[in-house]
Amino acid sequence: MKLKMMCVVSAMAVAGLGPAVLSAQGPSLRVCADPDYLPFSNQAREGFENKIAEAVAKALGQRLEYSWASTRGRGGFTEFLSRTLDAKKCDVVMGLPYGNREELTTRPYYVSSYVFVFKKSKNYDIKSMDSPVLQRLKIGFEGDTPVEDGAKIRGMLSRATVFDVGSNSGESPATMLDAVEKGQIDVLITWQPAVGPFLNRYPDLEVVAVPNARTLGPPEQYMFPMSMGVREGDEALKQRLDQVITGHQAELTAILTRHGVKLYTPQDPNLR
Predict the structure, then answer these.
(1) For residue 99, which of 3, 38, 121, 125 sits 20 to 30 Å off, Cα-Cα?
(2) CB-based contact 95:259 (threshold 8 Å)
(3) CATH architecture for the domain at 113-209
């Protein structure tokens, strides 16, 4: 996910969602998703966003229907939104950074982060993108992400391996973890939810969050609040989803945790 605040859960009871929520929409919750991009989603409904969608549909008392389309083709996620959500082939996507300018976003239901991943045996002293050790290591990251921008302004691109997992439908995010395991790169810098479900296969790897930073020019954001996205103007559905998130936050968090998604809290509220 190329990009991407933890909600404060109210004491609203599930019953409080009531008829106003269930009567505002038809019998189906129509979701746009990638049919082959684990750990996020697949057509067998095994991804963590599939499970989130199931929980939301159940809370709304609706059937879950999918419109399948690749998020990794030409034009990437923006083109995916144009061909699906904006084309009214569905009504919601389950993972979009809060405040996205292309669509209307719900309140966030989780916050995660880009992370440094390296072998525990190396014991690297890495705390941020400005850690001196990064200047002498082979790093890897996905192209067209905040990490690429951060590496560029620090002059680290010449030693970097740029992965195209987010565009290449033939690759799994686990490909990047394999590169660390095999010593092809020393440090991977990637979106944690993309690799979290695979990390149990790599017990010798260390994972450290990349903090948001203001050290070089404009603010750099590496921790993102994640929301559900609906079409601009669909305030009614956004409100219903906000109510579900508020009333079922513990359930949604449990799903994310079971699927290896690590939740973080940004240190600087001005960078949220």
Answers:
(1) 38
(2) no
(3) 3-Layer(aba) Sandwich (3.40)
